[in-house]
Write a sequence for this structure.
């Protein structure tokens, strides 16, 4: 028989974005259908159809013959009770894989192709490996600008879209790769204090030692319901929340869930990812920060310019007012790397403390100034001065405190992990290079971002003269195992290069 | 803590080639390590390290806090008892993914790259999605001939290799796509009767309505242990066994397990797959059959020629005596499609029955003749006559019976499924086209190859004149659901085109 019914059973196994179905090896349906372990099956009940990967079970205490077990997320998709009778058959491969195969063969895809691909992805018809095939086929330079526009639009349409009903909804986004770069936590209070709407949602760190959400979480709650978020933004003009709960451009999340572990990314996919998310979040004006440096994501000025054009091309066609700022990505921003240390730096800047890291302050003011100039009432070139005035007057700090109170404050304690190792200069010289990637890796090894007080605290930055034995940075950890890992890593490569003034990395951009 | 230990528990879930580990959500290690569902973890015990995908469990009856559950295949890799203490930490991504990323970026890979990729794949360090990325990145024309040679060699070296200790070990392989094409079951007895060693192992059908192993299984056992296979080949000079048990070019199987569900294939990967498997099986001489036709895998003569060159290039450099035969792939071979019906056709040819399908007999003789000419004692051009003599004298049939007896005979019954639907011509005309893909699909819908007596029996072939209402073919099934599916499919598109003699598809090759 090619179709048959089984009794639904909920299996308390969390398989994340991947639906898994469990069937007993002795089950008649399994035998008759000629299913294989890992084959994809379609499960139907009351018109709802879901796809799942099949696991074959030999233990009747997990699932019995005549039952179909479903992992948590899969079960929830049916809105039903255990014991319901479901129909099971072979899943047809998603139709839009034809388009992916055409892309693999070097063809150009049209708008309808991208729409059907994102439809199939959002309906969970793609397996992880099919998504991987799509990503590799559309990676690097294999999408032209129009295809990228189609993809972005299709990703945007795949989920919900927030409407703020205001003419100007500002946002900023950095393409990442620079440790300590917590400018959003300064830009949001400055811009919101100016009165512009800036409902900032951020991700948690996945490959970096801290995301804005991880760092903000040192100060207050970041996991807000859509209603809470809405209320706070209306009242405070800004927020700094985790963006994980809303169903905005869900295809983007599903692509990232494959992209990240594969370690593949392409400029095209980055543009589609960022712009679809921002548009879904209701942004009308976006400032994109592209840091350039030898250990940044973008290493050459010409790459940064090409990326800027891509952002502009797609943004313009999707009716987003978009500006790109190419920034200095030669070294980490600020001093701290890791949630607690970065939160400390941010608060020092907001409090106008003389100890505040000047580079973080300067960059945040530049970015905030550009965003403030989105305001039609602000004269071109005046944004920076307005931003600086808001910061120096204490209004930014007050706004930050209001946002913290609104989101749900936490006790303030930025003390770093008690295990501390100091990394010293091996010779005299001036700091000519700091490797962003290595510093991020050391901070992660030390436990960041899971261990919020773990990380790296930089005492010397590019251009600093140092004597042999002088401390370059401190590693902080909470657990001995992490601590040892991080120390060993720093021993192999401390991430710093010392030399003469002539060897000092020149900024690739004038900032 | 970044490293910790858990007690091993066997979970009776079959996850096929993919290792799955189960950890309770409340487990300290899960929380401390910051694992995520679906992240890859490394599990170590007594120097054995395996990688697994993590599933998070909320049901302590499946796995408890402090325990690490492992799916069947994963558990077996440890050779240990339940309750052993294992160490768990984050899996590093496989190092060779760097090479895959370089390939995605358009670079050329060298021999060491392919060696490290196949090493990582065979050690299960690649997830399905990483394999998909590799396949797409190396698909189509993105491998040059030298890269293809490196890949083939690396795949060959990834597993065991059989040595027959004879100067001439013959084999044949068809690239597939033509229903009913069971020539191996004729070629093997003819060639073995000539005295040449031809230890033929075949696959079961995955996307086709019957593989040679499925069809041979109508006559005898095909699931032989390596020892049995060896003994039979020594005694009979040939066999027709299922190739699934040996560990020959295991990377090939792991690639195919991803390639098939994705529906992607490339000529390069096909060449690497076939040649690595044949060399691992100990073949010294190989005849490759490339059918060409509008609904065959290869649709143009120039594609067939390009593929031939690829086979020759790699075969020559791996010291395999290789010849390619480009054959007529315009329509199915023989009459039956499906294991029972194809076994019937084969036996009719072996028994020199006047009802035997002439095209199957003719093609098998051509192929067998070419293989016999691998024999240095046979004069060029004499192979066909020798093959025909072996067949007509009954020596081929006798050899087939010996092989059947050796492998373990089954009761002979080729009767097709009792549910039968006759598909009739809708008009007068001659058969000008038969769609291989559609006929295969109808046979599969009818239940083949799982239901051995299901399939399609063709009464008319290309060039046959038919009257309106005359029967073109019969659909046979064993179960009503299958039967309805197949009938509906044939109703939508019966796969036949009727027209005038002038419209008859001309063979793309002279055969």
């Amino acid at each position: 028989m090619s179709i048959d019914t089984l009794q639904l059973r909920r299996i308390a196994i969390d398989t994340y974005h991947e639906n898994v179905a469990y069937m007993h090896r002795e089950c008649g349906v399994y035998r008759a259908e000629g299913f294989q372990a890992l084959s994809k099956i379609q499960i139907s009940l009351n018109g709802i159809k879901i796809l799942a990967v099949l696991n074959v079970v030999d233990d009747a205490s997990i699932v019995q013959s005549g039952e179909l077990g479903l992992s948590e997320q899969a079960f929830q998709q049916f809105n039903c009770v255990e014991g319901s009778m479901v129909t099971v058959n072979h899943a047809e491969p998603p139709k839009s894989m034809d388009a992916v195969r055409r892309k693999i063969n070097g063809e150009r895809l049209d708008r309808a192709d991208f729409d059907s691909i994102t439809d199939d992805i959002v309906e969970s018809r793609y397996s992880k490996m099919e998504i991987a095939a799509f990503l590799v086929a559309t990676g690097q330079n294999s999408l032209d600008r129009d295809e990228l526009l189609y993809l972005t639009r299709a990703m945007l349409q795949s989920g919900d879209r927030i409407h703020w009903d205001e003419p100007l909804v500002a946002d900023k986004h950095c393409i990442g790769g620079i440790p300590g770069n917590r400018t959003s936590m300064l830009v949001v209070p400055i811009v919101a204090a100016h009165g512009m709407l800036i409902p900032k949602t951020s991700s948690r760190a996945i490959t970096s030692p801290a995301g804005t959400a991880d760092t903000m979480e040192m100060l207050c709650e970041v996991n807000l319901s859509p209603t809470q978020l809405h209320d706070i933004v209306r009242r405070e003009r800004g927020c700094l929340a985790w963006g994980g709960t809303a169903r905005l451009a869900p295809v983007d999340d599903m692509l990232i869930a494959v992209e990240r572990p594969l370690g593949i990314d392409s400029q095209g996919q980055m543009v589609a990812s960022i712009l679809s998310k921002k548009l879904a979040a209701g942004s009308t004006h976006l400032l994109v920060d592209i840091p350039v440096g030898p250990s940044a994501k973008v290493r050459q000025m010409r790459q940064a310019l090409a990326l800027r054009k891509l952002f502009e091309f797609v943004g313009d066609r999707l009716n987003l007012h978009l500006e790109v700022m190419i920034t200095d990505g030669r070294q980490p921003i600020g001093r701290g790397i890791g949630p607690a240390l970065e939160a400390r730096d941010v608060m020092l800047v907001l409090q106008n403390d003389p100890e505040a890291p000047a580079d973080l302050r300067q960059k945040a003011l530049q970015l905030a100034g550009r965003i403030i100039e989105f305001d039609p009432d602000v004269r071109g070139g005046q944004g920076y001065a307005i931003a600086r005035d808001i910061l120096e007057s204490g209004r930014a700090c007050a706004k930050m405190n209001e946002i913290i109170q609104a989101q749900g404050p936490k006790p303030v304690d930025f003390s770093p992990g008690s295990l501390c190792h100091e990394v010293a200069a091996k010779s005299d010289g001036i700091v000519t290079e700091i490797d962003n990637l290595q510093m991020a890796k050391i901070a992660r090894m030390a436990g960041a971002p899971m261990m919020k007080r773990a990380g790296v605290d930089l005492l010397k930055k590019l251009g600093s003269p140092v004597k042999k034995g002088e401390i370059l940075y401190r590693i902080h950890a909470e657990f001995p195992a992490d601590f040892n890992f991080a120390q060993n890593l720093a021993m192999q490569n401390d991430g710093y290069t010392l030399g003469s003034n002539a060897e000092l990395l020149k900024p690739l951009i004038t900032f």
Observations:
- Chain A has a mean pLDDT of 91.
- Chain A has 18 helices and 19 strands.
- The CA atoms of residues 57 and 72 of chain A lie 17 Å apart.
- Chain A touches chain B through 59 residues (CB under 8 Å).
